[in-house]
């Protein structure tokens, strides 16, 4: 069949039209199903096959990916994942699940009837499978929220692409909206500041705050991707909120891959340089990651720490990501409500919507009768 089959339908089973159910799909990057070579290879194959992630001619990249990378990298990556894996599973998965549950509870407490679900761009549960489940639940209005504060084609856009592919196969498409970015949202900035200030209140403050964002190739900036600018705006707004002077913080970029030039300054070389210049204490925070994951817990909290200390630094502290802190859940809930305006979400909204829909139907029936 050209289009996916619709869920079984019984007349009157679901509300439709003005009173249809509203849902939110939180989208995160994804994670292997297990910290072993086989699962990691499967995950990397999907991730690194995305043309928005790797913008290299497909034929050439396929040879490199399947001939070299997927035969070498999974073993090393599996060890890295194993070093951060928890009894509950992958940290990224754990924090995404907790954020989903807490956001659902927050909306429920506010009196909003909004179903909150999560899906992963790569790995499980897939965006397509979750959207199919949401439609089976009778959800006809979906707000898609990629959990990437700063827009990038290789993160936000590819999540939206994935939703679009699912929609292209749907016969009865739901109404869909997208949250493009929230890099300068006041609630998000406040949540970041609260995280840093709470850490400082408990551990004291280092001489320098390093704000490390995920890196992307420099070519993406040259081609018009706004990611670099949005990262710097987040850094500036957070520094202003924390009352930092320009020499008290640095914005850097991590996770360089391959030989091409990526956004600079690079995080690890910057930390080494600070240590060599006598900056003997640093706090490192990753504002672009709303939940701790491999890149924060292993790359920043461990690898970058070793590099800094080896270069002569004395005190290195990693500040945890937002995870499921109260200010972040509050900010996320408010972001969602700002984006679903005009969609019925409150109990009285739904009853009023149904009444309005019935009134329209009656008016239409009277009009038809007059014509007859």
From TrEMBL:
<protein>
    <recommendedName>
        <fullName>Ferrochelatase</fullName>
        <ecNumber>4.98.1.1</ecNumber>
    </recommendedName>
</protein>
<dbReference type="InterPro" id="IPR019772">
    <property type="entry name" value="Ferrochelatase_AS"/>
</dbReference>
<comment type="function">
    <text>Catalyzes the ferrous insertion into protoporphyrin IX.</text>
</comment>
<keyword id="KW-0627">Porphyrin biosynthesis</keyword>
<dbReference type="InterPro" id="IPR001015">
    <property type="entry name" value="Ferrochelatase"/>
</dbReference>
<dbReference type="GO" id="GO:0005737">
    <property type="term" value="C:cytoplasm"/>
</dbReference>
<keyword id="KW-0963">Cytoplasm</keyword>
<dbReference type="GO" id="GO:0046872">
    <property type="term" value="F:metal ion binding"/>
</dbReference>
<dbReference type="GO" id="GO:0004325">
    <property type="term" value="F:ferrochelatase activity"/>
</dbReference>
<feature type="binding site">
    <location>
        <position position="214"/>
    </location>
    <ligand>
        <name>Fe(2+)</name>
    </ligand>
</feature>
<keyword id="KW-0456">Lyase</keyword>
<dbReference type="Pfam" id="PF00762">
    <property type="entry name" value="Ferrochelatase"/>
</dbReference>
<comment type="pathway">
    <text>Porphyrin-containing compound metabolism; protoheme biosynthesis; protoheme from protoporphyrin-IX: step 1/1.</text>
</comment>
<keyword id="KW-0479">Metal-binding</keyword>
<dbReference type="InterPro" id="IPR033659">
    <property type="entry name" value="Ferrochelatase_N"/>
</dbReference>
<keyword id="KW-0408">Iron</keyword>
<comment type="similarity">
    <text>Belongs to the ferrochelatase family.</text>
</comment>
<dbReference type="InterPro" id="IPR033644">
    <property type="entry name" value="Ferrochelatase_C"/>
</dbReference>
<dbReference type="GO" id="GO:0006783">
    <property type="term" value="P:heme biosynthetic process"/>
</dbReference>
<feature type="binding site">
    <location>
        <position position="295"/>
    </location>
    <ligand>
        <name>Fe(2+)</name>
    </ligand>
</feature>
<keyword id="KW-0350">Heme biosynthesis</keyword>
